[in-house]
Amino acid sequence: MPRGGGWRPGARWARNDTQNGVGQAAAIDALPAHQRPTMREMGRRSEHADHPFKAMPSDEGARGGGGTAMPSASSPMAVLQGGRLTWARPMVLITRSGQREIITSACPLALDLGLHPGMAAAHARALVSDLDVRDAEPEEDAAWLERLALHALGHWTPTVAVSGHDGLWFDLTGTTHLFGGEARFCHRLLRFLSRLGFTASVAVAGTPGAAHALARYGGESMILLPPKEEAHALADLPLAALRLETGALNAAARFGLERIGDLYPMPRGPLAKRLGLSTVMRLDQARGMVAEPIVPVTAFETPSARRQLLEPIGTAEAIAQVIGDLVDDLVVQLQQRRLGLRAAHLTCQLVDGSEQKVGIGTARASRDARHLTRMLVARIERIDPGLGIETMVLIAPHVEDLQASMVAAKLGRDDHAPDLALLVDQLSGRVPPEAVFRLSSHESDVPERAIRRMMPLGEPKGWPAWARPSRLLARPEPLSSVIALLPDHPPRRFSWRGGTYRVVAGDGPERVHGEWWRRPGEMWAVRDYYRVEVEGGARYWIFRRGDGVEEGTGDLSWHLHGVFG
Amino acid sequence: MSTQPALPSPSQEQLDALRAKLTSARASRGPVLPFGVPMLDERLAFGGLDGAGLHEVAAASSKLSDDAAATLFAAGIAARFASSGFTVLWAVSRFDLYAPGLEQVGLGPSRLLYAEGKKDQEVLAIAEDGLRDGSLACVIAEVRSADMTATRRLQLAASDGQTPMLLYRRHRARDQCPLTQNSSAMTRWRIGCLPSAPLPHPGVGRARWSVELARQRGGNPFSLDLDACDDKGCLARPALSIDRAIAPAGSANRAA
To answer: Rounded CA gap, A432 and A434, in Å?
Structure first.
């Protein structure tokens, strides 16, 4: 009863046809979402109705009012795993083909509303106004599936294959006892997937085809099929469960064949003639009459080479010999897989169980055995063999694609520059890798900032052709007792490092403004650079802080910054 | 009193063997790089710098200006060695080079690879690696001291890799020329700053250096005053005052 004991005529709770609220609620729940009566229609019972103008959707993407969890883009399925979530917005994923937008998948709520994959998105929007439409990302889905397959490979079974765009095949032969049987394994799998936010269904069958069909069309989240039951279990499933081609499905629909069981009594010859030989093959594969190999995914294997030594070694020559053998083994692997090495670790296991490790890196992907051997041999002195080395392992943790390259014809003059990568690698072994570098220009007028270090194999850029010294002081040194005319004349004389210099000629000024975007103190700062020649022939690069007119540009102090030749 | 026995006259085979040895010794030298200044090239033993040998450069004094001049002299030679697009390796232990200045004598950033070592030993080892690699146009190493063994190693590496080597010796003490150390270099240069030629207008003219060859194999030392490197790294003979174009009257010393 509503508050106050009164009742409104026409209120649904007060109608005579339904006696109890429980049956009514069940009836309402059975309706599709868009046909359910609103709270206002049903009358005020447990909570007040929202003000019709209060819960306007905000412009920022989040729904105003209500505690609804929006399906986030990262785990759109998370909302769906909890069973009936009647308060969520129906969501569909669409793909564009030409001008049309087609629904590729729909959430259970949207399926309830009558939206189905293959429908035009405009049609769906017309049917359901409050529809969440997102773009399908098949590449992302495939990447997820691949990750799941690799995880399964490492944790559950050694043979895993991706099946279609939405499933995985596990070869469970001889593995489920590790998890306590097939049923417990399947429960564990489903729990794992639900933690990740996926709804899944599992079917265990004797053939890949039967498992594929039962997992998708079986109607239960977990099916464990006893052996030799495939034909019986598949009989009632639709033909689409057999992974048939579209043409075969259409032809079967014309002939009135709907269930897989309809195909069993048919003679095979006419069946193959009308629905194609592949249909017969799929049927036989699903029933286990023809073997169906699955192509398992393989995890990327890090190229490595290993040598177990007959006797412990300790001399540099012996280590170099083993290094040469290891590199030869590794280079063969790299050649077969078209890879080039960027980094390698050499691990030496000693007799006393400890390990010695050295590493190399290359500036460019390489599988040149001579070069790699030379780089590793140069690091032998860092290995302490102790009582002797009994195993050596060479691993390449960082590799890159390296296709065969064409050898340039040696015709005429060979005047193109040789490859520096080998030299850079060799120098990087002698000094730290960052101590081998090139200098490139940086867009700044301040001289000490115009230079940037870069990788030795990069393409550096040059500088504008203003007069610049060949050596620059680490920081400008102040000059004393400077006699100069303001604002734009070089000084007549100055003192620096205990000597007095009389200037005989000067060029300038070259004005450099401060970079206000770096420091607020450089907002108005100015340096006026002069190139001066003093008596005796020395040529210096000096500057004055400030332009000599405005007070805020600098304190008019003089500094020496570089030396010309 | 015994008379000195007369030397036996060499046979034809001996002479031929000696001549073959001489030819092979000459062939082991790299291509010679002339300076393009006749008065300098004709005083050098091979008409230029040996392209597979060790050459030393030092400043005439410990002043920074002479140091900078010697740097540019070495950079100019390296730029002319690298004119075919090859790369120059510059190994230093204390980095105070200013790359835009080096670009102005023709040694652009794309032709120059730097390597920084902690000590002279590391710098010399880097230089030797670069020489033996053989893919460089020239190697420059800045060291404070390098003894006879080190220079001999560099000379051998340079002739093995057919790569010229410029050893830049920095001053250690104020009044001690670094070129007094023994060395097996082909040439040893000492560079100092001279006043530039006065211009008919205010400004600093083209720099001028005193280029002194302190020692060379197979030749005599000499000293010359030359104009500094231009943007290709080429030195020039200073224009004599009688050859110089006469400045228009009244333009000199008008300002400044």
So the answer is: 6
Of the partner residues B68, B102, B133, the one whose CB lies closest to the CB of residue A423? B133
Residue labelled with tokens 């007549």: A492
- Residue A175 is given by DSSP the state T
**A54: contact with B, CB 8 A cutoff:** no
For β-strands A222-224 and A202-204, DSSP reports them as parallel
Residue A72's pLDDT band (cuts 50, 70, 90): very low
> Does the distance separating the beta carbons of A462 and B68 come in below 8 Å?
no
Q: What percentage of chain B reaches a pLDDT higher than 70? A: 89
E strand spans, A246-374: 304-313, 339-350, 355-366
Residue B249 within a domain: no
On whether any CB of chain B is under 8 Å from the CB of A475, the answer is no
Q: φ and ψ at A146, to 5 degrees?
A: -65, -40
Cα separation, A169 vs A160, in Å, equals 6
Structural domain boundaries of chain A?
3-42, 87-136, 139-287, 304-401, 471-564
The runs of H, that is alpha helices, within B84-236 are 99-103, 120-133, 148-161
CB B78 within 8 A of CB B166: yes
In which domain, by residue range, is B35 found? Answer: 30-195+209-227
Residues A346 and A380 sit within 8 Å (Cβ to Cβ)? no
Give the largest Cα separation in chain A, rounded: 119
Do the beta carbons of residue B204 and residue B196 sit within 8 Å? yes
**Quick one: closest CA in A to B91, which residue?**
A436
A-chain residues near B194 (CB < 8 A): 537
Residues B182/B155, Cβ–Cβ less than 8 Å:
no
- pLDDT of residue B213 exceeding 90, the answer is yes
Sign of CA dihedral A46, A50, A51, A52: negative
Query: What is the architecture of the domain spanning A87-136?
Result: 3-Layer(aba) Sandwich (3.40)
Q: Do A415 and B228 touch (CB under 8 A)?
A: no
Quick one: which H or E segment has residue A432?
A: none
For residue B9, is it within any domain? Answer: no
What is the residue-averaged pLDDT of chain A? 83
* Residue range A304-401 in CATH 3.30.420.40: no
Q: Which two tokens stand for residue A294?
A: 């699955």
User: What string of DSSP letters covers A404-465?
Assistant: --PPPP--S---SPPP-HHHHHHHHHHS-GGGEEEEEE-S-SSGGGSEEEE-TTS-------
Is B126 domain-assigned?
yes
* Residue B18 domain-assigned (yes or no): no
Any bridge partners for residue A499, and if so which? A496
Spatial distance between the Cα atoms of A425 and A340, rounded to a whole number of angstroms: 14
Which A positions 488-547 lie with beta carbon below 8 A of chain B? Answer: 489-490, 504-507, 531-533, 535-540
Q: Which of A158, A184, A187 has the alpha carbon at shortest distance from A171?
A: A158
The verdict on ipTM greater than 0.90 is no
Rg (CA), chain B: 21
Phi, psi of A386 (to 5 degrees): 60, -125
Asked whether the beta carbons of residue B129 and residue A427 sit closer than 8 angstroms, the reply is yes
Average pLDDT of the residues in A56-81 = 36
Q: How far apart are CA A14 and CA A128, in angstroms?
A: 30
- By C-alpha distance, which of A89, A129, A87 is closest to A106? A89
Residue A534 clears pLDDT 90, i.e. is over it: yes
Contact B109 A469 (CB under 8 A): no
Does B204 sit within 8 Å of A532, measured CB to CB?
yes
Top-confidence residue, A1 or A565: A565
Domains identified in chain B, total number: 1
Could you read off the pLDDT of A168-184 as tens digits, one per residue? 999 888 888 888 888 99
- The answer on pLDDT for A322 being more than 80 is yes
Structure confidence by residue, pLDDT tens digits, A143-161: 888 889 988 888 888 888 8
R_g over Cα of chain A: 39
Cα three-residue angle A337-A338-A343, rounded to 5 degrees: 90
